[in-house]
Automatic annotation (TrEMBL):
<feature type="transmembrane region" description="Helical">
    <location>
        <begin position="36"/>
        <end position="52"/>
    </location>
</feature>
<dbReference type="Pfam" id="PF00482">
    <property type="entry name" value="T2SSF"/>
</dbReference>
<keyword id="KW-1133">Transmembrane helix</keyword>
<dbReference type="GO" id="GO:0005886">
    <property type="term" value="C:plasma membrane"/>
</dbReference>
<feature type="transmembrane region" description="Helical">
    <location>
        <begin position="209"/>
        <end position="229"/>
    </location>
</feature>
<feature type="domain" description="Type II secretion system protein GspF">
    <location>
        <begin position="71"/>
        <end position="196"/>
    </location>
</feature>
<keyword id="KW-0472">Membrane</keyword>
<protein>
    <submittedName>
        <fullName>Unannotated protein</fullName>
    </submittedName>
</protein>
<keyword id="KW-1003">Cell membrane</keyword>
<keyword id="KW-0812">Transmembrane</keyword>
<dbReference type="InterPro" id="IPR018076">
    <property type="entry name" value="T2SS_GspF_dom"/>
</dbReference>
<feature type="transmembrane region" description="Helical">
    <location>
        <begin position="12"/>
        <end position="30"/>
    </location>
</feature>
<feature type="transmembrane region" description="Helical">
    <location>
        <begin position="177"/>
        <end position="197"/>
    </location>
</feature>
């Protein structure tokens, strides 16, 4: 796992470097001034950061949206007479495609002799999600108590998850205009600078020491403002209470 993390970090650094160099070259070619190209290169570094972060958020939302379906599979298995372990193992074949590999690993842990409770802990670590923690805790409690109302409890939990996800989706949709406005406000002045830099007077102004200072300060303030707006418009993740 450590090697995989190192490879991912190295790949991200390479992506940031390519984005920065590309931004610098494009701005330099348009303005014919490397001094103006440097701030654009610095700002371009944030583009893959934003894209990777949004992809990560999108993947997390997709995974969370699958839990009601997973719970329906578990409830169906329990009602058909399967044990809890057999039901979870079956999710490696009949569950959502995105989560099958995780449940296959769970079944392999059980076959290797791992305790069911420990296998659930490993399952929580693999999902790394607040909703997964809640589901695994309910399943572990049902295993320890031998409750006959497990299906009813899981159905109630599924309804709560559906309501929570729907409410979060509605709030995030309303917050999306904040993120879009932040992106537009951050990029608009720099696009205008590229357009105006074709004029000799503008080029001379921003290639001076004072002009270069303004560009550097502007780049820093743009990055700070965008990060702040992203934080304001971001909904807090579901806490991992049982982690």
């Amino acid at each position: 796992m450590g090697r995989r993390i190192n490879l991912t970090s190295s790949r991200n650094v390479l992506i940031y470097a390519i984005s920065s160099i590309t931004g610098f070259l494009v701005a330099t070619l348009i303005t014919t001034s490397p001094l103006i190209g440097f701030p654009f290169g610095a700002i371009s570094t944030t583009i893959p950061v934003v894209l990777l972060r949004r992809k990560s958020e999108s993947d997390r939302k997709l995974l969370q949206s699958l839990w009601p379906e997973i719970l329906d599979h578990i409830i169906s298995g329990l009602q058909s007479g399967l044990s809890l372990a057999e039901t979870l193992v079956g999710l490696g074949v009949r569950g959502p495609i995105k989560t099958r590999s995780t449940f296959i690993l769970f079944s392999e842990n059980l076959r290797s002799g791992m305790d069911f409770g420990r296998a659930l802990e490993e399952l929580k670590m693999q999902f790394d999600d607040g909703i997964a923690d809640q589901v695994c805790e309910v399943l572990d409690f049902a295993r320890l108590s031998g409750s006959r109302d497990t299906s009813l409890t899981l159905r109630t939990l599924s309804n709560f998850i559906r309501i929570d996800l729907a409410l979060r989706a509605e709030i995030e949709a309303k917050h999306s205009w904040v993120k879009n406005s932040a992106a537009l406000a951050a990029i608009a002045p720099w696009i205008l600078l590229l357009l105006l830099a074709s004029q000799p007077n503008t080029l001379r102004a921003y290639t001076s020491s004072a002009g270069l200072g303004i560009l550097i300060v502007g780049a820093v303030l743009t990055a700070f403002a965008y990060i702040w707006m992203e934080k304001v418009g971001k909904l807090k993740e579901i806490p991992r209470i049982f982690a």
